[in-house]
Amino acid sequence: MVDSLREAYERDRNIWDSCAGDYEDQIVCGHPDIVAYEAFEEDFLDRILLYLARECGRSAELFDVACGSGRLHLRYGLKVTDDPDLDPDSAEKLRRARQSIPSSEYDALLARRLRAVRGLDFSDAMIKLARKKLVSAGLGASISSRLFFRVGSAFDLKPLRKYPVPVAVSLCNSIGVMQGPAGAVELFKAMRRAVESAGGVAIISGYRRQAVETFALGNYESTMNVCGQPLWLEPDTHAGPRYTQVPRAYKLAHDPDQTICVDVLDKEGQLLKEKFMLRRSEPAVQQVIETGHIETHSDYESYWYSFEQFEEWIDSLWPKRQSYHLVGKSIDALRAEPAQIAILDAGGRLEGLLNRWQTL
Description:
It is a single chain. With 360 residues, the chain is of the alpha/beta class. It has 13 helices and 13 strands. Strands 3-2-1-4-5-13-12 form a seven-stranded mixed sheet, with helices on both faces. A four-stranded antiparallel sheet has the order 6-9-8-7. Helix 6 (124-136) links the parallel strand 2 and strand 3. Helix 1 runs parallel beside helix 6. The protein starts with a helix and ends with a helix.
């Protein structure tokens, strides 16, 4: 890893360690547009895993790169764990977890064919949060037996073993918070390295720059208590580390409102100012729309890459005959409008399924 990339990596790791709990509450389990997109990703991944199991008769291991707080571990842990296999306390926790998470019922085919879920993240705080979440859902006994975690860098991925079929995924625009374009290139390289010799599958899901105006602005304004005040909002009176600004309501996609109302808290959580109004700066907004580069006063950065940029990386870094580039809205116009998905099918097993999606 070059020095500049390593420096950005360490900066971002510290940021994510510090905001892990808030990120889980306000974004993963919070903003409706993000929750809907994550549900789309999970349904999409279900189709991939079940196609491998049913149509190809193959078992798989899922490798979640930038796994964060273990969203996929929880989902598939619930799907592959049967109540009778658990002690009474864990079984009751599992039943309660299933009631709160749609489409998490036991799936006998996945239980047989999905051998393990492995996760990698650079944030130790996120991994600890993930483990705690699994224990709360009654899945503690599966940690380190079927559900695995490791703290480390996505850029250092090694080739995965051939059996079961490795399915490596990096979802929900994790590529956009991997230290800029240089990090995105390293992720494409690492995902290919991980699955190519094993004939596996690599999936990178990201937001498109073309959706910044309709989705990104509202998303980041609505969650500034996690990521910090976006640079395009004025004034910056309470934008520093001494304050937390809590939006009073979520702004959904396509909302034309140029303002957002927040409550200002101090570091101890005491209310300092109620209903403080922030307004977009038109020149700053236009720069974000043109570049896809999102910055906040907390040094948080995210990139929404254009469709053309993804296409260039796929063409130059992945083998063409095994690669696919899908527009999310062509698969699910309601939930996946801002997204794009890069898929490397190194074993050629998903051709029938992927060709159907490409022609939608």
